[in-house]
Each structure stands twice: as structure tokens, then as C-alpha cells.
Design brief:
The complex is a heterotrimer. Chain A is 39% helix and 20% strand. By secondary structure, chain A is an alpha/beta fold. Chain A has a five-stranded mixed sheet with strand order 11-10-12-9-13, sandwiched between helices. In chain A, strands 5-1-6 form a three-stranded parallel sheet. In chain A, strands 2-3-4 form a three-stranded antiparallel sheet. In chain A, strand 2 and strand 3 form a beta hairpin. In chain A, helix 3 crosses helix 8. The longest helix of chain A has 21 residues. Chain B is mostly helical. Chain B has ten helices and no strands. Chain C contains eight helices and no strands. Chain C is flat. By secondary structure, chain C is an all-alpha fold. Classes of the chains: A alpha/beta, B mainly alpha, C mainly alpha. Chains in contact: A-B, A-C, B-C. At the B-C interface, helix 2, helix 3, helix 8, helix 9 and helix 10 of B face helix 2, helix 3 and helix 8 of C.
């Protein structure tokens, strides 16, 4: 009996020692465990990914995905309660605020590319979009070269403004580039005729046009500044444990069919606050991404089924 | 601390194809100086006129001056710039409004005029203080000699008053330079704006802002030294014109 | 001219503007003024202490803060404070600092330079006889400052300090550059969401104007009353 007890105790000791090693938390997981809160960075007006509803609460496709990640973190750390804090970010503050610890997850419409991977990490892609421009039909602008010599607006800190700047230099268009602080401001500039065109991701442009006072007055260009690029939820770099949890949560979400249901909720049905329906059916590339999730920054790796 | 430094970023090419990041910052600096100078000229002209108005014997003139100063002093500069840039074009007849909105360099003109008028209220106060600090005898002697009010101001009061208020005017000019940074909200990409753009394109937050800080400090030193020489050059011997 | 303007948007957003926006602005102004005054007085004392090193550091700090635009300082501290927190507390990661805390730290440190100059002028305006008499009575430096010099200096400079606070109130609008929700930020959000720039900006301008005017008027009254007492 006594022998059995010592063996039992020894087994328990070795097993619990293994347990202690597994709980050596680092990075964001450690921070969340110690503080009991996780902070989500949300956008003001990236409809329908991350925006404020009428009660100034953040909602959206990316926010819903982040809730799933938070649930996974809660399970992983075996916490009874995990408080979620929300912190507003803009295109230009999202990376510094992630790096300096103000937010732990950035849930919005951030493009995953190789340049940004030097500073941050991304989890599995949740959307694919190309950079286009929207202008008023009355301005008669169809191609990028038509923008020569005009005033064009984009949001600071985005890949869109960077692509616009580079295209401007490469094709010698002499465009007067006006940077705005947020997407809503960019679109407002075209609405009030301060700029003739706004350059943003095509899905965001579609949602602004649909929600504007006079949707028929606008037209989106067929010309794109880039190939369809992936959106990802941003995380801090050099934090493999947290990335693993996020990757697992998002992969489970997408492959289970829940991802398609969420897509349907935000893109094919009426959404708050004005009951707008974007009516944007899922592209074949994105369907494949949900079936086989990937966090690659390379636009070419996202092919149709 | 997971921020990695890269001080060589200044010599890497900027995405606007024009040069390096350092060139970007320097072009912002040039714009800052241009805007500050234009705003300062507007401020001096309007400010001295209003300051004189406030010291005139006529009650209406005094009241007009008072209203002008209170109007521009009680609103934040940012709000004033917004009114000029966003609100004014909408209140004008549509064709004028459209012309204002589509004007090239609209942010520059708006910023120069907006900041100029804001600072003119402060210059007006300084001018008034300067004129009031002169001994009463000056004005009385001018009247006794048969000078009209205008001549009294032009030949007796203003030359002394302006010299007296040189030091506070220097600090107001430095203020003007600092206030140009507020114009990034209406799209004027001056030094602070370029530093921000550099931060957004290259992700090197601290290098960008350190460079901007150093440049502002340099501008400060240059202006203060230049004004010191200028003050010494126009000083009237025998008078303590505010050291 | 005002035909197609919708001033009802102001009425609908009053609650959000004042409860969220104005409380942020007023709290930030009040706390920054207090913090700036305390810190500024310390710096003024450092400068007047007669110790060359302390004086040099204080002068350098004041010159630095007064040469930089507030917008740049706001950017600096918003991104920098968590790293400073990490360095100060020796923690393994940057400390999370919210928008309000970061703005508060920025304004306290920035305004301290201006308050320092005001307090320095105030302290220097006290006649030399006061500290001399205090020394003759056997009071230490600390006691002299605390019971004799600072109260008088403060009383003399109250109008200037209050005017500087009004300037601070207007300067808080600059947190707009970081989309921090103060009064102007709130007005701006409503303006952009509903496309009603004219109405909201005019309203914001009117509110700032009324508050600043009333405050300046109050300061002038106070000034005339204190002048008589002297």
C-alpha cells in the first residue's frame, strides 16, 4: 500500500512538473493571464469589417472573428472570466499601438503584406480585396491615367495611399494626393467635391457608396492599383504562442462553415446601423481560403478552387 | 522592447519617388517656413492696425478692435482652421465654394490666412500694450506740435512702440511657426505632417519624430539669433527697448 | 444661405457631445492645469534654486518644451509613454496606457514649461525683503518657500495662471490629430458620420467661444478684485 502511494505521488509529481513547463507563458498570453483583460483595436468606419453602430459600440465581420479568438484564448488559459477592452485605432496608429502594447489584437481591414510582416504578424486571412478608386459619374474618370493632375484623396497609413504614391511617381501623373485621417473622411472629400477620386480597398469603397446619400452618383473604377490582397487580423511579432492560438481559432472558424455563415451575415444581409445590404457574394478565391486557411502575404497564393 | 531602430532610414528612398526620407522631411520644413512667413506678414499687418484701433480716442474704433481680438482669441486655432477650410466654402454661393475647394494649394492659403488672423489678435494685444506703455507725454507733445492723430502715430508713437514690443513679437513669431503644425488637420503636409507620413510608410516612429524635433529646435535657434541681431540693429541708443 | 442645413443633428447628438466629449475635455483641462502647475512650480524652484546643475536642467526642459509644436509632442507621448512605463517599472513589455492617460501626461509635461515661466516671474516679483526677513526669523528654505514666498507668488499670478488655463482648454482640441474623443473629436465624428460638417463645426466653434469668453470675463473680474486688495 505504502509502495503504491509513493509510486502514485511520484507519478503525480512528474505529471505536474510537465504541467508547470507547459504553463511557461510568454508574450501576449502572459500579459492576458496577468491582467485578466485583452484589448481589441477597432476601426471607426471600416464597414462592414469594424465600425461603430448607433450606440458607439464596435461591430463588424472582423470583430466577430476576434470574439472567437478571444474565446480560444480564454479556453487556452483556462480563465473563468476574460474582460475585453476596446481601443479605437486609425490606419496610421494601428501598428505603433500594437507594438507599444496598447492593443493586443487589431481587428479591422488591415492588409497583410511582406513590408508589414517586418513589424507585426498576421493570422489567417479573412478577406481579399484590390485597391481601386471611386469618383462621381459626372467627373468621367475611368482609368488610373485619367487622374493626371487631379486631387485624389486616400487614408493615411494604408497600403492604398502607398500604392497611389508609387503609381503617381512611376507613371508621372502629377496627382495632388490628399491624405485623410479616416476612411469616412476620405469619402466625404469626394462627396463634397474637394477631391475628384478616393483610392481605397474596393470592398470599403463599395460599402461607402452603398451607404451614401446618392449611391447612383458614384462609379468604381475597373482599373485596380494592385492584385487582390489579403486582410488579416494583426498580432504582435515574435509571439509564436499567441499566434498559434489565433491561427487555430480562425482556422477552426473558417473550415467549420461558421466562417461562411459570418460572411453571409455581414455581406449578404442587412447590417446596422442603416439596414444596408452590401450584396457582395463570396469570391471563389475567398471560398478556397476558408476551406484551406492561410496567412500568406502573397496575393498570388490565393487562387480559386 | 520589440522596436527595432534603423537610423539609416533617412537615406533610403521614399515611396513618393522624389528622393530619400530626409528629402521628404526637408520639403516639409520648407513648407513650414513658407506658411509661417506668410501667416506672420498677415498677422503683423492686421495686428498692428487693430492694435492701433484699440488705442484710438474714438470709442467705435476701440470697440471694433476689442470685438476683433475677442473673436479670434476665444476659439481654438484648430476650430478656426476648420471653419475657414470646411465651413466657408459651403456657405458661399456654389460656384465660389467649388472654386475654393478645387483651388490648388488650398490648404496652404487657408492655413496661412487662418493662422495669420489667429496670431493677428495676439499681435494686436502686444501693439496695444506697447503703445500704452509709452509715456502720456508723447501723445500730448505730438498734439501740441500740431500733428494729426495719424501723423502722431506714424512718426512718434509707432516707431517706439514697435521697438519696445520686439521681444514679445519674436516669441509670437516662434508661436506662429509652431502653430503651422496644426494645419496637418486640413491637409497641409508640413514638417510634422511629413514626419507622420514617414512614420506611416517606414514604421520607424522614433527616428521620424526625432528628426522633426531636431529640425524645429534648429529653426528656433536660427530665429532667436536672427532676431537678436535685428533688435540690436534697430535699437535706439539711450533707450532700454526691452532686453 | 442656411436653407438646406439640418440643425437638428446638433440636438440629436447633444448627449454624446457633452457627456462624452465635453467631460473628456474639461477633465483633461482641469487635471492638466493642476498637474502642470505643481510640476511647473517645481521646475521654477529648480531654476531659481541657485544650484547650477539643477538650474541648467530646468532651463533646458523649459526651452525644449517651448520650442516644439504641441502636435508633435502629442504624437511623441502617445507612442512613447508605454515604452517609458516599461523602462521605469522594469517590466518585460510596454505598459498599456489609454488615450486619456497618454493625453494627460502629454499636457501636464507640456504645460508645466509654461506654468514654470509664469511662476518664476511670480516668485521673482516678490520683494527680496520677504525671504530675507524669513531667513532672519530662522525659517529654512523649504519653510520660506512654503509659507512666505509661494503663497504670495501664486496670489499675484492667479490671473495669468487662469489665462494660461483657458489657453490649455483650447489646446486640448489638438488631441483631434489622434482621433481621441474630446469635444471637437466628438463633434467631428458626428459631422463625418452624418455628412453635416457646417452645422457641427459652427456649433463646436460657438461652444468653445462661449466658454472661453465667459472664463476670460471671469478672470478679468477676478483681476480687478485682486488689484484692489493689493
Amino acid at each position: 500500500m505504502k509502495c503504491l502511494r509513493t509510486i502514485g505521488l511520484a507519478l503525480a509529481a512528474t505529471l505536474s512538473a510537465g504541467q508547470v513547463n507547459a504553463e511557461e507563458l510568454t508574450g501576449t498570453l502572459k500579459k492576458v493571464k496577468e491582467t485578466g483583460t485583452i484589448t481589441i483595436g477597432y476601426r471607426d468606419s471600416s464597414i462592414p469589417f469594424s465600425y461603430l453602430d448607433d450606440n458607439q459600440k464596435p461591430i463588424g465581420f472582423a470583430i466577430d472573428i476576434c470574439y472567437r479568438i478571444v474565446d480560444a484564448v480564454k479556453q487556452e488559459l483556462k480563465l473563468d472570466t476574460l474582460a475585453i477592452e476596446f481601443n479605437p485605432v486609425t490606419s496610421s496608429t494601428r501598428i505603433p499601438l500594437l507594438a507599444n502594447g496598447t492593443i493586443d489584437l487589431e481587428c479591422g481591414s488591415t492588409t497583410n503584406n511582406a513590408d508589414r510582416l517586418k513589424q507585426v504578424a498576421f493570422t489567417n486571412t479573412h478577406f481579399l480585396t484590390a485597391t481601386r478608386f471611386v469618383s462621381k459619374k459626372s467627373s468621367n474618370l475611368t482609368s488610373i491615367d485619367d487622374l493626371k493632375g487631379k486631387s485624389v484623396v486616400s487614408t493615411s497609413g494604408t497600403t492604398n495611399i502607398k500604392q497611389l504614391t508609387e503609381a503617381n511617381a512611376a507613371r508621372n501623373l502629377g496627382i495632388n494626393i490628399i491624405p485623410a485621417k479616416e476612411h469616412a473622411e476620405s469619402f466625404l472629400m469626394v462627396e463634397t467635391d474637394r477631391a475628384v477620386a478616393v483610392v481605397l480597398d474596393d470592398i470599403l469603397l463599395a460599402s461607402f457608396v452603398a451607404g451614401s446619400k446618392d449611391p447612383d452618383a458614384y462609379v468604381m473604377s475597373k482599373d485596380a492599383f494592385s492584385k487582390p490582397e489579403p486582410y488579416g487580423i494583426m498580432l504582435r511579432k515574435d509571439d509564436p504562442a499567441f499566434k498559434k492560438v489565433a491561427d487555430r481559432a480562425t482556422a477552426a472558424l473558417y473550415t467549420s462553415g461558421e466562417g461562411l455563415r459570418l460572411y453571409d451575415k455581414w455581406f449578404m444581409q442587412k447590417i446596422a446601423p442603416k439596414g444596408l445590404n452590401l450584396n457582395a457574394p463570396i469570391s471563389p478565391e475567398l471560398r478556397r481560403e476558408f476551406a484551406v486557411p492561410s496567412d500568406s502575404p502573397d496575393p498570388d497564393s490565393y487562387k480559386a478552387m | 522592447m520589440n522596436y527595432h531602430w534603423n537610423w539609416r532610414i533617412f537615406f533610403e528612398p521614399a515611396p513618393n519617388g522624389i528622393g530619400t526620407y530626409l528629402d521628404m522631411l526637408l520639403s516639409g520644413l520648407v513648407l513650414t517656413i513658407e506658411t509661417a512667413l506668410c501667416a506672420w506678414i498677415i498677422a503683423l499687418v492686421f495686428g498692428s492696425v487693430v492694435g492701433v484701433l484699440r488705442t484710438l480716442p474714438s470709442k467705435t474704433a476701440s470697440w471694433v478692435g476689442f470685438a476683433y481680438v475677442e473673436f479670434f482669441r476665444n476659439m481654438p486655432l484648430l476650430v478656426q482652421l476648420f471653419i475657414w477650410f470646411f465651413v466657408l466654402p459651403e456657405l458661399l454661393p456654389p460656384s465660389w465654394g467649388l472654386w475654393m475647394k478645387q483651388m490648388p494649394y488650398a490648404p496652404f492659403y487657408t492655413a496661412a490666412i487662418g493662422i495669420g488672423l489667429f496670431m493677428s489678435a495676439r499681435v494686436a494685444e502686444q501693439t496695444r500694450a506697447g503703445i500704452n506703455s509709452l509715456p502720456r507725454g508723447q501723445r500730448l507733445a505730438a498734439t501740441a506740435l500740431g500733428l494729426t492723430t495719424a501723423q502722431a502715430y506714424a512718426y512718434v508713437l509707432l516707431p517706439m512702440a514697435l521697438r519696445i514690443i520686439m521681444p514679445p513679437l519674436t516669441s509670437e513669431f516662434l508661436s506662429t511657426i509652431k502653430n503651422t503644425s496644426v494645419a496637418i488637420t486640413i491637409g497641409l503636409i508640413e514638417l510634422t505632417g511629413e514626419a507622420r507620413a514617414m512614420q506611416e510608410f517606414s514604421f520607424q516612429v522614433f527616428e521620424a519624430f526625432t528628426a522633426a524635433t531636431v529640425l524645429y529646435l534648429l529653426v528656433n535657434i536660427v530665429v532667436v539669433t536672427a532676431m537678436r541681431f535685428f533688435e540690436r540693429a534697430i535699437a535706439i541708443p539711450g533707450y532700454i527697448t526691452g532686453k | 444661405m442656411f436653407a438646406n442645413f439640418d440643425f437638428d443633428v446638433i440636438r440629436r447628438s447633444l448627449a454624446y457631445l457633452f457627456v462624452d466629449g465635453m467631460t473628456f475635455t474639461l477633465t483633461l483641462t482641469g487635471l492638466s492645469a493642476l498637474g502642470g502647475l505643481i510640476f511647473g512650480t517645481m521646475i521654477a524652484l529648480m531654476r531659481l534654486s541657485g544650484l547650477p546643475l539643477l538650474g541648467r536642467i530646468a532651463a533646458l526642459y523649459v526651452d525644449l518644451m517651448r520650442s516644439l509644436p504641441l502636435v508633435l509632442v502629442i504624437f511623441w507621448f502617445y507612442f512613447l509613454v508605454p515604452y517609458i512605463g516599461q523602462w521605469l517599472t522594469g517590466s518585460s513589455r510596454p505598459i498599456r496606457v489609454g488615450a486619456f492617460a497618454s493625453s494627460l501626461i502629454t499636457f501636464v509635461l507640456f504645460e508645466a514649461a509654461y506654468f514654470a515661466e509664469i511662476m518664476r516671474a511670480g516668485i521673482q516679483s516678490i520683494s527680496k525683503g520677504q525671504p530675507a526677513a524669513a531667513q532672519a526669523l530662522g525659517l529654512t528654505y523649504g519653510q520660506t518657500m512654503r509659507y512666505i514666498v509661494l503663497p504670495q507668488a501664486f496670489r499675484n499670478m492667479v490671473p495669468v495662471l487662469l489665462t494660461q488655463t483657458i489657453v490649455l482648454f483650447q489646446d486640448t482640441s489638438l488631441v483631434y490629430v489622434l482621433s481621441i474623443p474630446d469635444f471637437l473629436g466628438a463633434a467631428s465624428k458626428v459631422a463625418q458620420r452624418d455628412g453635416r460638417l457646417v452645422e457641427m463645426y459652427l456649433f463646436a466653434a460657438a461652444v468653445y467661444f462661449v466658454i472661453s469668453c465667459a472664463a476670460s470675463f471671469g478672470v478679468r473680474q477676478l483681476q480687478s478684485r485682486i488689484a484692489v486688495m493689493r
